[in-house]
């Protein structure tokens, strides 16, 4: 089956610093990837849609200057949380869409901002 | 606005006790309805996609069904390893936007 990886799986950073999270589709090409965040005991909330070679589309209420998304290749999208604050602490999950429009999710990245 | 409501929020079963999880949805034209399984601290694992009313899909002890307003995930003779949160999501038809709208999930606990 389709495999999506994320790196790192856990990261702790200090308030005010930036953190980059990578999302890779390992065995298929994905022109579209998605970034979600999930708070404890809550469902996944879509943050943005990442399209290879073009600008990401952000959901309402998501700051595009704070959450920078780059989709530089058909197998890699990155999310950079800039000037992180404790309220940005969350579980960040990416998904990659195959050519059947099905989404496969990565294992998630636990971000803790101290 | 697309909406997905899952019930119950939590379900406890004894091993071997079959049951069903419900996913009610409203969407402006359904492209697909998706079921995922999520274990604590992990990303969702794809289970099924259903595209049209009347469609059914099975995988081991799980069977998913779809009507025009809701989907059911039937669990037959569950085992403790089936314990997880089950997420339902819809994808609307039209345009090039393939985003998923998720429900809050059903936390299933199967006791031995």
What would you note in describing this structure?
The complex is a heterodimer of chains A (114) and B (112). Chain A has strands at residues 4-7, 10-13, 19-25, 32-38, 45-51, 57-58, 67-73, 76-81, 90-97, 103-105, 109-113. Chain A is an all-beta fold. Chain B has no helices and eleven strands. In chain B, a hairpin with a 2-residue loop joins strand 6 and strand 7. The N and C termini of chain B lie far apart (41 Å). Chain A binds chain B through residues 1, 4, 6, 32, 34, 42-46, 49, 57, 91, 93, 95, 97, 101-108, 110, and chain B through 31-32, 34, 36, 41-46, 49, 87, 91, 97-105.
Extended strand count of chain A: 11
Rg of chain A (CA only) = 13 Å
End-to-end Cα distance of chain A: 37 Å
Number of strands of chain B: 11
Query: H/E order of the elements of chain A?
Result: EEEEEEEEEEE
Q: Please give the share of residues in helix of chain B.
A: under 10%
Overall average residue pLDDT of chain A: 93
- Proportion of residues in extended strands of chain B: over 45%
Number of helices of chain A: 0
Greatest interface by residues involved = A-B, 25 and 22 residues
Q: What is the residue-mean pLDDT of chain B, rounded to a whole number?
A: 94
Percent range of helical residues of chain A = under 10%
Main β-sheet of chain B, in a few words? 6 strands, mixed
In terms of structural class, how would the helical and strand content of chain B be classed? mainly beta
Largest sheet of chain A: 7 strands, mixed
Distance between the termini of chain B: 41 Å
Q: Stretches of chain B where pLDDT falls below 50 for ≥5 residues?
A: none
> Tell me, what's the shape of chain A?
globular
